[in-house]
Amino acid sequence: MKCTHIALMSTLLLAVMVSAAHAGVVIGGTRLIYDSAKKESSLSVSNPDNAPYLIQSWVETTGGGAEKAPFMITPPLFRLDGNQQNVLRVIRAGGNLASDKESLFWMNIKSIPSSEKKEGQNTLQVAVKTRIKLIFRPDGLKGVPEAVTQNLKWQRNGNQLQVSNPTPFYMNFQQVSVGGKEIKEVTFVAPMSTADFALPAGTTGNSVNWKLISDYGGIGPQHTGNL
User: Fold this and answer.
1) pTM, whole model, 2 decimals?
2) Same domain, 120 and 152
């Protein structure tokens, strides 16, 4: 009896896992660079599944509080049918943003699967929210982060690695290592700011290597500096 119960539970769990293994909605980028010289910026959203999804999108500040982000997305809510694609258009809606450096916001895209009840079957409906960086780049800034990343200043501060960014660009790290040891959970350093990352125990050496994530989500070449 116990073996039968375990087998039944395993079968139900497998059914749920299979029902949840959709291809899901595909977002056409891992970040969005908003060039202030243009009226809008856009991002594609596609649905490779046969079933429709409800797509809801919005922009929020990095603080995540009540402060409203100066951007609107159109359409903010729509149905995306199976094997179809749509375009999210991001439009600036006011806001006093810095003209001498980039500004960072978060773009949220929630995909809600259709609810279809089938008699005698267990289904699991999961709404997935994707959050990507929305970087506002003023018209006066020329070039890309990769071109000036060698201006970063690195130093050891106790068991922390500190990086200072004198440039007007966000530096989004794909990888950082010191003395051949990779630093875990590296993120980014804001323009004209510093950031700290925990060094692995036993890290030695004065050489630091890093790679950036480009505007299009690609991985740039390795750069080398000294502590």
Assistant:
1) 0.85
2) no
